[in-house]
Design the sequence.
């Protein structure tokens, strides 16, 4: 089945592209302009800087939250790390619960929603603008984000809805309503509605259009340029078959192939790093130096920092609330255990995988620096760093990997398409949960959302990278605005759960089964 | 002499043969029988978000189906045997879980049927019989 998708996605556009390029390009442009003008105000608001600075308030918002959770839970991401691994291995799982969703499965599914283009294309965008130094801030944001993820996923499980038929619905909108009510905090309902609206926008943006856009860029990179709406239609048709037609086989195959692609990606990056082992220390030197000086990038140190933080947040989604939806399906007596497991997610996603991408791009010398000053040279617009072949986004990553292993660009193309697809499936689910929270469950209501979702696949594939990536970031960060307010108000609940759990773990009341 | 025999049972012909063998033996030795059915399950498989959401519901349905379609008919068939019959229904790796059931119930023997020809798949992935022979905590009888 996967081969079928691959063949269809690669072969069909190549045939069509030859026939009608002129008319299609203008259609792409119309969609692009319309899209940019329709979403511009929203993007400007979310990314507006503090007065008199270039620092977007939203980035500060996320970083402060991650810092607060890190301190409030006394560096839980490091303290609980070994225990989280034990939980994922199943050491604490009751054998009588076999057949229920395991911690490993919840983590794997949540990861397949976050590991994807953020790790491949997003990192390239960040490095292309913020230079190697962005990597430092990205790793730092990833480590801190582990505490945010821990907080939201614990709450997601604690306040989920369990229905009589055995299915569950969870996520920020449920802890906002039920959690606030329990603690006598007003306005939970309003927050939940706001979150749901932003979640739907985020699902259509970062969870959909960005994916379609970069998947198209990747295919075009391999087979040659052709209009984006063609990729869009093909992707939309496949997504439609899966989420509306209930064609589980495609989703199943993807979900099984994606983790292997992830492992393959990391292994390949490792091979390239080993091939260039003598340059690793130099690369880390660039990363540290760039982190504090910018090495000539637009905005200097702050420019590198903003890019790093932005990409980390977009890639691992810590504080955004999406993972709370994915993790809430686990059957556990202790909601906190799911929090522990989820804190591995930003680690794997950002600290491991994103860093691999960054190192490969830096080490393979894709960024053009002035040999005399060591500073990076900027493009004409003075916003992005010059690259060897003028590549941006996913094409930059592809060029970096191919320069060491020539055929890798084909593997990467397949990986990107599958990652994009699995992320779309995950986000269609998150969006749908928000949609049904707002409008209630029901076949027609759900169908309306799913059709809208498919239409946005086409728009995403047709629009230019700039407007799409801006809107995607804006919508996902808007979710974080609301979610983090709720996390602040509910973090004492998590603290209570944590203290109780840790004391029972210490006393031996909670013990390993195997 | 009170012995207990765990029979791995999935309703197939070879499983029926194994059960019949165990019943004969139980009658001569005065043993009791545990009819065990294992639903193959790995906690490390990958599921989609929708599958995660429905897992608990599906698990309930799968257990009910196994109880009604596999275990109940087997127990019914042994009503007149005069033996003490117990059942066990679990998720997990078939060989390991049968071993666990034997240990927990204090059984002193496991009886299973053999599934057909030693084909390619069992060469690659191993068979239940071979895994059980390697890992079982009590003697194992494989009925052809």
Sequence:
């Amino acid at each position: 089945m996967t081969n079928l998708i691959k063949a269809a996605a690669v072969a069909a556009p190549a045939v069509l592209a030859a026939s009608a390029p002129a008319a299609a390009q203008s259609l792409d442009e119309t969609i692009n302009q319309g899209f940019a003008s329709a979403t511009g105000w929203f993007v400007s608001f979310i990314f507006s800087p503090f007065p008199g600075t270039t620092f977007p308030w939203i980035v500060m918002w996320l970083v402060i939250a991650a810092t607060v959770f890190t301190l409030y839970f006394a560096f839980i991401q490091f303290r609980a790390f070994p225990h989280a691994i034990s939980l994922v291995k199943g050491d604490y799982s009751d054998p009588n619960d076999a057949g229920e969703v395991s911690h490993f499965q919840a983590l794997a599914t949540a990861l397949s929603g976050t590991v994807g283009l953020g790790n491949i294309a997003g990192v390239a965008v960040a490095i292309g603008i913020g230079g190697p130094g962005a990597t430092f801030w990205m790793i730092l944001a990833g480590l801190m984000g582990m505490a945010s993820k821990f907080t939201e996923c614990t709450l997601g499980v604690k306040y989920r809805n369990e229905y009589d038929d055995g299915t569950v619905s969870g996520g920020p909108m449920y802890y906002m309503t039920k959690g606030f009510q329990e603690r006598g905090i007003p306005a939970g309902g309003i927050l939940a509605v706001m979150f749901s609206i932003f979640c739907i926008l985020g699902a259509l943006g970062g969870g959909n259009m960005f994916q379609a856009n970069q998947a198209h860029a990747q295919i075009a990179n391999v087979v040659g340029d052709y209009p984006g709406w063609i990729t869009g239609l093909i992707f939309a048709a496949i997504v439609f078959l899966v989420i509306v037609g209930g064609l589980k086989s495609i989703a199943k195959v993807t979900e099984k192939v994606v983790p292997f692609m992830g492992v393959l990606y990391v292994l390949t990056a490792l091979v390239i790093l080993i091939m260039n082992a003598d340059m690793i220390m130099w690369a880390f030197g660039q990363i540290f130096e760039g982190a504090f000086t910018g090495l000539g990038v637009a905005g200097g140190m702050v420019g590198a920092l903003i890019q790093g933080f932005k990409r980390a947040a977009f890639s691992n989604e810590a504080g955004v609330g999406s993972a709370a939806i994915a993790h809430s399906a686990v059957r556990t007596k202790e909601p906190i255990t799911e929090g522990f497991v989820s804190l591995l997610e930003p680690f794997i996603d950002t600290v491991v995988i994103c860093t691999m991408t960054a190192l490969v791009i830096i080490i393979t010398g894709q960024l053009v620096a002035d040999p005399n000053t060591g500073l990076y040279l900027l493009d004409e617009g003075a916003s992005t760093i010059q690259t060897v072949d003028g590549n941006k986004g996913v094409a930059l990553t592809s060029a970096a990997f191919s320069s060491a292993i020539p055929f890798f660009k084909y593997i990467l193309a397949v990986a990107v398409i599958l990652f994009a697809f699995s992320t779309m499936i995950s986000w269609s689910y998150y969006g749908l949960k928000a949609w049904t929270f707002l409008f209630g469950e029901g076949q027609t209501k759900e169908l309306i959302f799913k059709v809208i979702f498919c239409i946005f696949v086409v728009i995403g594939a047709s629009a230019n990278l700039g407007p799409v990536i801006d809107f995607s970031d804006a919508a996902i960060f808007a979710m974080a605005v609301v979610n983090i307010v709720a996390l602040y108000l509910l973090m004492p609940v998590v603290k209570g759960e944590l203290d109780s759990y840790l004391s029972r773990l210490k006393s031996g009341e909670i013990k390993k089964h195997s | 002499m009170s012995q207990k025999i765990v029979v791995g049972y999935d309703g197939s012909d070879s499983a029926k043969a194994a059960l019949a063998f165990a019943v004969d033996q139980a009658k001569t030795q005065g043993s009791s029988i545990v009819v065990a059915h294992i639903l193959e399950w790995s906690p490390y498989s990958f599921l989609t978000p929708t599958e995660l959401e429905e897992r608990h519901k599906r698990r309930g349905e799968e257990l009910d189906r196994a109880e009604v379609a596999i275990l109940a008919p087997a127990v019914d068939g042994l009503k007149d045997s005069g033996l003490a019959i117990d059942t066990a229904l679990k998720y997990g790796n078939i060989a390991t879980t049968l071993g666990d059931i034997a240990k927990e119930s204090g059984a002193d023997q496991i009886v299973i049927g053999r599934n057909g020809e030693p084909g390619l798949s069992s060469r690659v992935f191993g068979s239940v019989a071979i895994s059980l022979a390697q890992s079982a905590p009590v003697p194992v009888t494989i009925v052809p």
In short: Chain B touches chain A through 25 residues (CB under 8 Å). Chain B has one domain: 4-143.
